[in-house]
Backbone:
């Protein structure tokens, strides 16, 4: 992103500034990095609740009689099998199998006339790429792709107290709303798509609303959460929360030079769905390669010391480079530095001895562990 | 935020106390601590080692980044703050007090250290 380009601001920009947020340029958006201590924000989400502005995420609406068939062709998952009111984590790949983005697709409604209404949510950094790819791939299908990035603000409430907070503001049946489901409702008097999704490893909700309702909703949630320790949270803790939960981030664990199989996420590719899809041939080859002779495997690393690994640092064993860190941070929950890294298969088994990270010239010992680092107690 | 008047400051955001018996205390400013975010690891110079004004002598790691620590003066390290080594969050909570980093017997001091007001002007830009 060139620095001369104007940063985009969410509908909550003035709210963030009044809360004293430290702002950062994220994919061309001026977003809250943290309001106070990112560690306190992280711990609030793990133990109580956190409030996030995620309005930078890219919403794309897909409608039409062949919307399901089109998305089955354009994406690697079986989107036609997603029920109304449910959501699916999936990916969009290039013809060579490289990952263009990871996505959440919501099936919002079906009409009696046989038309379906989906919302595709892309990463902010990839929203234009996804929009362009979908627009190109829709040719020949009776479906419409619409850029709805400016139609929504997105506010997330995450953490164990989030169901209680939301219940105090809506009549919607939250108990009936399962993980990866979404339903239209009213929250604090504001029409919203209420989704039980998130990127923190905790129970939580994402609320898609019109931008003009964002401030009102944010304030209502803040007030409803006052008594249970809800705090505003920035992107910094969102990153450590998702890292502890072992969730990949596009640009770190995912890229066009990797297929879903390389990223250990081959399960999102559904070869048995109806019809051809973009990348099928290359992905079938990638699946075979990954099972017979995996090049590198995504693993977790936990530090024995206190120095923090960062993306791009070499992973070493016996003086040889055997991999590369993709994400690293001090883990507030574990109290130790952690990282995700791609390492040679021979060194990828949990407990493999002698693995370290080259931290600016010094080889620090690390333990290879299975992902995720953190799993909530249900 | 206010920078204590009795301290002097480097453009790399370290502060330096007035020497007592030739020994000054060094830390990073509140401005720097806020910019770093939560400090999670402090690598400080070894006691007995010599540091040179303007050269790196350690590092501070925060959630999002790692930053070099520069010595504002030349001299010999006489003490490091073990409290900060054990609890790096002190750098955020009390950068000018309990979050001090090391003490140094000053042999040479650069001419361009800033007053509190000059440092405030430097960080306002």
Residues:
């Amino acid at each position: 992103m060139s620095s001369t380009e104007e940063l985009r601001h969410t509908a909550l920009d003035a709210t963030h500034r009044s809360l004293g947020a430290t702002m950062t340029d994220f994919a061309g958006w001026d977003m809250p990095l943290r309001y106070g201590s990112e560690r306190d924000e992280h711990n609030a989400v793990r133990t109580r609740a956190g409030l996030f502005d995620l309005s930078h995420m890219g919403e794309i609406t897909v409608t039409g009689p062949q919307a399901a068939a089109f998305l089955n062709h354009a994406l690697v998952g079986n989107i036609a099998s997603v029920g109304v009111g449910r959501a699916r984590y999936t990916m969009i790949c290039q013809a060579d199998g490289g990952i263009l983005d990871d996505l959440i697709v919501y099936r919002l409604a079906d009409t009696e006339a046989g038309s379906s209404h989906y919302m595709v949510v892309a990463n902010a950094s990839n929203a234009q790429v996804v929009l362009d790819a979908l627009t190109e791939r829709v040719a020949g299908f009776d479906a419409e792709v619409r850029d709805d990035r400016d139609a929504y603000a997105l506010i997330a409430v995450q953490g164990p107290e989030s169901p209680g907070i939301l219940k105090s503001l809506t009549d919607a049946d939250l108990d009936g709303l399962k993980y990866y489901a979404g339903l239209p409702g009213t929250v604090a008097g504001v029409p919203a798509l209420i989704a039980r999704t998130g990127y923190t490893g905790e129970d939580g909700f994402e609320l898609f609303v019109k931008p003009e309702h964002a401030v009102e909703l944010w304030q209502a949630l803040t007030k409803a959460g006052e008594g249970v320790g809800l705090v505003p949270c920035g992107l910094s803790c969102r990153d450590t929360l998702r890292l502890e939960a072992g969730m990949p981030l596009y640009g770190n664990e995912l890229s066009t030079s990797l297929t879903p199989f390389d990223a250990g996420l081959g399960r999102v590719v559904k070869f048995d769905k109806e019809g051809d899809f973009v990348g099928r041939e290359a992905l079938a080859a990638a699946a075979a390669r990954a099972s017979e002779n995996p090049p590198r495997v995504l693993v977790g690393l936990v530090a024995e010391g206190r120095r923090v690994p960062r993306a791009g640092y070499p992973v070493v064993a016996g003086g040889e480079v055997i991999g590369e860190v993709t994400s690293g941070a001090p883990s507030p929950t574990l109290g130790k530095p952690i990282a995700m890294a791609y390492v040679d298969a021979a060194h990828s088994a949990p407990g493999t001895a002698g693995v370290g990270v080259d931290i600016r010239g010094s080889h620090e010992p690390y333990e290879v562990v299975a992902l995720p680092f953190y799993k909530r107690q249900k | 935020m206010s920078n204590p008047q009795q301290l002097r400051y480097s453009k790399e955001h370290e502060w330096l106390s007035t020497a007592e018996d030739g020994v000054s205390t060094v830390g990073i400013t509140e401005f720097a601590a806020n910019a770093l975010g939560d400090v999670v690891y402090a690598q400080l110079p070894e006691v007995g080692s010599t540091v040179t004004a303007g050269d790196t002598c350690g590092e501070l790691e925060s959630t999002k980044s790692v930053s070099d620590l520069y010595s504002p003066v030349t001299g010999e390290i006489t003490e490091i703050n073990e409290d900060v080594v054990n609890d790096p969050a002190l750098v955020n909570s009390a950068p000018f007090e309990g979050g001090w980093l090391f003490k140094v017997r000053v042999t040479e001091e650069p001419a361009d250290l800033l007053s509190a007001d000059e440092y405030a002007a430097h960080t306002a830009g």
The two ends of chain A are 41 Å apart (CA to CA).
